[in-house]
Write a structure and sequence with these properties.
It is a single chain. The chain is an alpha/beta fold. It has a single domain (about 5-80, about 145-370), classed as TIM Barrel. It contains 14 helices and 15 strands. Helix 12 packs across helix 13 (about 345-355). Residues about 1-25 and about 360-375 have low confidence and may be disordered.
Length: about 375
């Protein structure tokens, strides 16, 4: 079983009391929550580009997140979706006009250009563009400047920056549409594990989390690698592999104590839609926290919340213009990390609530016991 000595760690978790008398609730390991650069620093650069990842690291991110899709010739590249018309200039390339098609992806008809119809060499001729230009017009200034990076290039960047900065930068890859890619003979799990192994990422001490919205592929990964695994949970719907298999359970079923106990048999934590942690009312205002963080911690699971963004269109109604307060309220629940498009804001708020990693009393002891005594079922 993948688990912590839950009761021991929860009792020993460090709580930091700052001069402002603010208290940060204990995380599962006693370590400060990690900041994950969501697709890089995508509030400031086109997402899933080396420039976005590099900026996220400079802004204080502990991990950078590449969403992974496969190419025709079996490479893993970082794109939000395998349909790339919204994130690259492919629609303006006449040489690829005949690649436009319509496919059924996770039960939905999607039209456009798809990574699995391109070799890596062909994808490398494309250039990234801003996915949501109406919300982030400033990012359009970078349209056409950056390539589509491979997983290996993201790893190389993380390792290079770790050496230069003297702190470990982790990677947090997501396998996108694993059931679909399996169906077309491009299973991503084996490719991913092969790349991780080649880079020395082989066990739970490695600075890696693999995440997925599906369940079956995480269970497969649990047999292929010992790096940490994260079950993603949305606030509605169900894993697509459950749709295919006829499993009636939803994400909310997986977020119950019973569902969390099952997740703990194959994963190290959950990546939760933040509405599962602090829901919003009908007007979009934040309500009181649910029991999810405590329930997950009781099951020995980490909790990483997604996604935090500074723009008002994404903020709770009662926190418009004040993204810092949203971070404060979520940090106070005891989450173990969060995904942010604006890692500088996440880092700044964390710094006002806790000392930087390694500075808290007991930080070197509590995580050590947690990780040393972790094992699989």
């Amino acid at each position: 079983m993948r688990h912590f000595l839950g009761a021991f760690l929860l009792g020993m978790a460090t709580i930091a009391v700052m001069p402002t008398e603010k208290v940060l609730a204990g995380t599962l390991t006693g370590q400060p929550p990690i900041v994950i650069g969501h697709r890089g620093a995508s509030g400031y650069r086109p997402e899933h580009t080396l420039a976005a990842y590099e900026l996220a690291i400079e802004m204080g991110a502990d991990y950078i997140e590449p969403d992974l899709v496969a190419t025709k010739d079996g490479y893993l590249v970082a794109r939000h979706e395998n349909e790339i018309s919204g994130t690259t200039d492919v629609s303006s390339r006449p040489e690829f006009a005949d690649r436009f098609t319509t496919k059924v992806i996770d039960g939905q008809n999607i039209s456009g250009w798809f990574t699995e119809d391109f070799t890596l060499a062909e994808l490398k001729t494309l250039r990234a563009i801003e996915r949501i230009p109406a919300i982030r017009p400033g990012n359009t200034a970078f349209n056409g400047l950056f390539e589509v990076p491979t997983l290996q290039e993201v790893i190389d960047l993380a390792k290079e920056k770790s050496s230069l900065l003297g702190r470990t930068i982790g990677i947090y890859p997501e396998t996108k549409h694993p059931t679909y890619f399996d169906s077309i003979g491009l299973s991503m799990e084996e490719i991913l594990v092969s790349v991780l192994n080649a880079n020395g990422y082989t066990d739970e001490t490695a600075p890696v989390y693999i995440q997925s919205f599906e369940v079956a592929n995480l269970k497969d990964l649990n047999t292929l690698t010992n790096v940490s695994l994260i079950q993603l949970l949305n606030n509605s719907g169900k894993p697509y592999d459950f749709v295919v298999s006829g499993d009636s359970r939803t994400y909310r079923d997986l977020a119950t104590p019973e569902g969390l106990a099952e997740i703990a048999t194959y994963a190290n934590g959950i990546g939760a839609n933040k509405n599962l942690i602090i829901p919003r009312d009908a007007s979009g205002n934040l309500l009181s926290p649910t029991s999810l963080v405590n329930d997950a911690h009781a099951a020995g699971l980490l909790v990483h919340a997604w996604t935090f963004r500074d723009e008002n269109v994404f903020l709770p109604t009662n926190l418009q213009g004040n993204p810092e307060e949203e971070y404060r309220q979520f940090y106070a629940t005891g989450i173990d990390g969060l995904f942010s498009d604006n890692p500088d804001t996440a880092f700044k708020v964390r710094s006002t609530l806790v000392p930087e990693p390694g500075a808290m009393l007991g930080l070197g002891i509590v995580p050590l016991f947690g990780w040393l005594f972790r094992r699989r079922k």
